[in-house]
Specification:
It comes from Psilopogon haemacephalus. Strand 24 and strand 25 (384-391) form a beta hairpin. By secondary structure, the chain is mainly beta.
Length: 557
């Protein structure tokens, strides 16, 4: 039995300390003992020298215990806690017992009474540190080997998680990179779409330049006090963000809402969130950076993290914010009678593009041909709205007014990507530049008429004799979606290769119900996908493209 105490597991020694700290077995002290034992057995041992992730349920405290290495009268230790979401409460409690307890107990049962007699002063439980908030906080202290420590964590807002790092090794460097004495980020320049930043170098960068780098986080919501908190916010938006994705050059598979850009040794990842974009840019050891491609007149928040690439541990500089400059009012473009112009609209900024026309006739007609994307048209006459709608295909607006009435056309992309549209203003009696359109611009294919080397397609015509040209293009399975999505409905046959042209023909029918034509395209390869396009030409040569049709020839005939 003399050697029994030396072979007790650590957790039993800790329980012994708890039990020994209880006074005479009164009903109250017995209840306290039960509570202490319950808390201990429902807690975990905190590892030394390792970062631990702690998951918290709302309003349910979680406890971690640790006893530092025996044989040292005073041992320095540090504890760093990083909240990854909402503010939390955390405390450090010390259970202090007599230093002679464990030593005397090791002598065996004969000396148990002597131990009890020598224990003159009762053990104490004291709170040595307490914090509430969502900042990264570090406690530094000295420990006696006869003390048992408990960390208690509580989240009162919602389920969350934190990271905890305990270390007693103060000589072999830090897990977390060091921050400079002045950890602020300075804004040194602001433009319409750019913000220039600089910050003091981290001492860790100067000491371990190959393992340390800076990463910048840009968003429109608020500053983040840790990289852990930023990653949690991105995940909560519905994305599956791999840990430290922005900090690793490993080829992770990005989600559809993410875009990765690697240029000039800089890694940029753009995450599409409901609250706006969140950009993560890692630029090595440069301590100045100009953030490009921002929106004018928008407030952005900037956070810089210095990251240890070996451990993925990071430290946060004090975040800052800046508002980009307002963009000057765009010049209003004058429209001229009969002239067709094409306009590209920025889908990201979603600004209005303005056109103006002073009427030279009482009756006028606006023509809009949607080339790509989604566009909203707003037309005013002398300041009053006369038309407002989202357009598709070819759209005409015939308006009446007086001579010298002022019409203003405002165009805006309603999608996330760029849009383009053709616009023409003309007198009502003017010969139209755009062709008369059929009821539908769909191309139909006949499955039963498909062979190994031919397909038959059909499309609608009009009551006007017009020219139609058919083009084909061989494509692969994985190109179908991109080909259909990237189609510019305003681009004519001049953008196609001569080898893709199949034929051109004229036709019409006075009876609209019978204005249908078919064409069999031969000389195709078996089991192959083809993209077919039909172009309809107007009197002035402007073409309208039917909706592309993908057809696959039969493999066997």
């Amino acid at each position: 039995l003399k050697m029994f105490w030396f072979y007790l597991p650590l957790h039993l020694l800790m329980v012994a300390c708890l039990c020994h700290s209880i006074k005479a077995p009164t009903a109250r002290s017995q209840q306290n003992l039960k509570t202490d034992l319950f808390n201990f057995y429902h807690s975990l041992i905190l590892a030394d020298g390792k970062e631990t992730t702690v998951h918290l349920l709302k309003d349910i405290p979680k406890r971690y215990y640790f006893v530092l290495e025996e044989g040292r009268a005073l041992a320095p230790f540090t504890i760093t806690v990083t909240p990854c979401d909402v503010p939390i409460e955390w405390s450090i409690l010390a259970y202090k017992a007599s230093g002679s307890f464990l030593g005397k107990a090791a002598q065996g049962d004969r000396d148990t009474q002597e131990v009890s007699k020598s224990q003159k002063s009762p053990s104490m439980v004291s709170t040595i540190f307490n914090y509430k908030g969502n900042s990264v906080e570090t406690y530094m202290g000295m420990s006696s080997h006869s003390a048992l420590y408990m960390l208690e964590f509580l989240s009162t807002e919602r389920d969350t998680h934190v990271t905890v790092y305990l270390t007693t090794d103060t000589t072999s460097g830090h897990l977390y990179p060091e921050l400079p004495i002045d950890p602020r980020i300075d804004v040194i320049g602001i433009g319409h779409t750019t913000v220039a930043l600089t910050w003091k170098h981290s001492p860790s960068v100067l000491q371990h330049i190959e393992n340390i780098q800076y990463c910048l986080l840009v968003n429109e919501k608020h500053n983040y006090k840790s990289l852990c908190a930023a990653e949690t916010a991105i995940r909560s938006s519905g994305m599956k963000l791999p840990p430290t994705l922005a900090l690793s050059l490993s080829p992770y598979l990005l989600e559809p809402q993410q875009v990765m850009i690697l240029s000039n040794s800089e890694l940029s990842i753009i995450n599409k969130m409901s609250s706006g974009e969140v950009r993560q840019i890692c630029m090595g050891t440069k301590n100045t950076y100009t953030v490009p491609n921002l929106s004018p007149s928008t407030q952005y928040y900037f956070d810089v993290f210095v990251v240890n690439l070996l451990t993925n541990a990071s430290a946060a500089y004090t975040g800052t914010f800046a508002r980009t400059l307002e963009e000057p009012e765009p010049k209003v473009m004058e429209l001229k009678d009969g002239k067709v112009i094409q306009i590209v609209l920025d889908g990201k900024n979603q600004k209005f593009y303005s056109l103006q026309y002073q009427a030279k006739h009482r009756k006028i007609q606006f023509t809009f041909q949607l080339c790509h994307g989604q566009v909203r048209v707003h037309i005013t006459k002398n300041g009053k709205t006369v038309a407002l709608e989202n357009i598709s295909g070819l759209r005409y607006f015939s308006l009446k007014g007086r001579l010298l009435d002022t019409y203003v056309v405002q165009l805006k992309s309603t999608g996330q990507s760029n849009s383009s549209v053709k616009v023409q203003i003309s007198p009502h009696f003017h010969k139209p530049s755009f062709p008369l359109l059929p009821e539908s611009l769909k191309i139909k294919s006949f499955s039963k008429l498909r062979t190994c080397n031919s397909v038959t397609i059909a499309w609608l015509g009009t009551q006007e004799e017009s020219k139609y040209c058919v083009y084909k293009k061989r494509i692969e399975e994985d190109q179908v979606w991109m080909e259909l999505q990237s189609t510019d409905r305003c681009s004519g046959p001049e953008s196609r290769r001569k080898s893709e042209k199949v034929l051109c023909k004229y036709f019409y029918d006075v009876n609209v119900q019978r204005a249908v034509t078919t064409e069999t395209i031969k000389g195709l390869d078996a089991g192959t996908l083809y993209l077919f396009d039909v172009y309809l030409f107007g009197p002035s040569g402007i073409s309208v493209r039917y909706h592309s049709k993908v057809v696959k020839t039969r493999k066997k005939c």
